[in-house]
Each structure stands twice: as C-alpha cells, then as structure tokens.
Amino acid sequence: MGAQAPQWLLTSFVDAMQQIGASATDTDLQNEGADLVERWSAPERQLHNLRRLMNTLTHIDEIASSAHDADILRVAAWYHGAFLNKALEIKLGGFQANFASTRCIDHAHNRLTNLGVPEEVVVRIDELIAFLTRHRAPRSDFDAQVLVDADLACLSCSPQDYKKLRCALRAELSELDDLQFIKARRALVKKLLGYESIYQSPLGAAWEDTARANLEVELARLDREKAQLCAAQADEPEESDESDDADEIVEDTTTTTGTLIIKRRSIKKRPPLHSPDDEVTSTGVLPPMIADGEDGDEDEEATSSLESAVESLDLPTSD
C-alpha cells in the first residue's frame, strides 16, 4: 500500500487528536499523521503495516460502544506502531528489555506533549500502548480491553485470510530460522488457546469461536512441523560448548505476533541487567504486570508484541 494513505485516514487521525485535546494546528496534526503513515508503510512491514492499522481502527469502531473514550484508543493504536522491532534489530539493540515497546511509548509521549495533548491524556496513552504490547488488559480496564481485542481481531478471519496472515508474519520475521519461528509461534498459539477467553470485551467475544478454530488448526500444523525439524536436527552431530559462562535455555515463549522471547538461567551468576518488577522508559515506569485471575501467569511474564525486545536473545550469525 505504500505511504499513499486514503484521505479519510489522515482526517480521522486529526479528528481523534483534536478530540483528546491536542492544541496544535491542523497543519501540524496532518504532518504528524503523515509521519506515522510513513512509519506504518515501511517496506519490511509485511504484516504490521498500514492495512493492519486500518483494520485495527475499523475493529475499534465495531466494538467502541463498550469504551469510554474511543478516540484515545485510536491514537494509542496509531502510535503503537511507530516502531517495528524485528529479531535482528533486537540483537543489535543490545538485548534491552521491551526495547521497541519503550521506544514507541517514548515517541508517543514526546510527540503528543509537543502537540499540546494534556499530560493526563498522554500518560493514559502511554499506559494503553503498554497493555497493547502485552496483548492483555486488566479486568477493570474496559477501554484497554477494547483496544487489545481490536488488535487481536485479525485472528478471527476466514481460513484463507488466516493463511495469508501466517505467511506475512513469517516473511516479517525472516531473521529467525524455521525452528526458532515454529517454537516461538507454537508457544504463543498455545498460550492464546489456554485463555478462558481470548477476547475480553463484551462485543469482542463475537470473534472468539472463529479465532479459536484458526489457532487450533495452526497449532496442529506447528506440532507437525516442529516434530519434523527436531527429528532432522537429532540426526546432526551436536557441538560441545565448554564455556564457563554458558547460558542454559530454560523456557522460550513468544509474543502474540510471533516474536521469540527466550528466558535464560546463567550458569555463572551475573548481576541483573534491570529490575525484575518495573519496566522503565525515559518517560517513566510502565504499568505493573497484570495479575488478576486466570490471566496471572501470562501477565507475570509480561509478553509483548512484535514491537518489543527480549531480555536475552542470541540469534544465529547467519541471520
């Protein structure tokens, strides 16, 4: 689609910004919208592109009647995609936790402040972006539930469109080898299917059955592919690693869009790189991990979207 956004899209951005209190001129707001369109239209974005943004905004409109302030949700959706972090960029980023997620939040905070959005609204959008990257909202935050559900609505589509989604995601994560990608995606799909409800908002529940059917078919496919690749690798000689400073992978998980997150336990003790409880951006501390009911395990791990980095990720040099 490139950067040729339909005029209604830019107009809707300006309208939403004015509704949340931005005091900047129409020209400044239009320029800001054009900059975000360019970001969403980057050529490497095979899945998280301008069409994905437009679909998310459409889904917000579909279920916005259960939200208090849909315009804040729309603006959060726009800025959530200000940066796209791919696996190679994560490696080059120095293994910083939630590297791209905090970049999106910092970018949104600074730009919205400069455009005259009231401080309390800016802080709320920071919070919403954080919940969006984790793909889970607190039980008491109905607006965040609408935003997260609108983002996950892409899972509820026809089998043909779901196949296109999977292919686009694989192309977007081309830095990962096949086994990395399959293990990461499989962990994510299992986690989504483990929820009592994938969708948390009242109207989002209409997408539940179709999304589950798509995920169950995908999980069966991933199980087969993983077994085949593991069997092939079992036939290859293993390389010994006698380094005293080696890391042992104890669990791998993933984001809802497939980004691989690997937790490691170091054989040699090392000082922590950051606080295990807080995620800090240059504009403040992100909301704490959500821990309510059956969602507690998910939120303690604080998985994030494709725009998030990992605590420790050692990608093959061939990437």
Helicity range of the residues? Answer: 40-55%
What fraction of residues sit in β-strands?
5-15%
CATH domain class: Mainly Alpha
For the termini, the CA-CA separation is 27 Å
Number of domains: 1
Class from secondary-structure proportions:
mainly alpha
List the quaternary state of the chains.
single chain
Strand order of the largest sheet: 1-2
CATH architecture heading: Orthogonal Bundle
Shape: globular
What does this structure look like?
- This protein is mostly helical.
- It has one domain: Catalytic domain of cyclic nucleotide phosphodiesterase 4b2b.
- It is 52% helix and 6% strand.
- It has 12 helices and 4 strands, in the order αααααααααααββββα.
- The protein has helices spanning 7-19, 26-40, 50-63, 70-80, 87-92, 99-114, 119-134, 142-152, 159-172, 178-194, 208-234, 296-301, and strands at 247-254, 260-266, 280-281, 284-285.
- A two-stranded antiparallel ribbon has the order 1-2. Strands 3-4 form a two-stranded antiparallel sheet.
- A hairpin with a 5-residue loop joins β1 and β2.
- α3 packs antiparallel against α4 and α6 runs antiparallel to α7 (119-134).
- Mean pLDDT is 78; it is low at 90-97, 241-280 and 291-319.
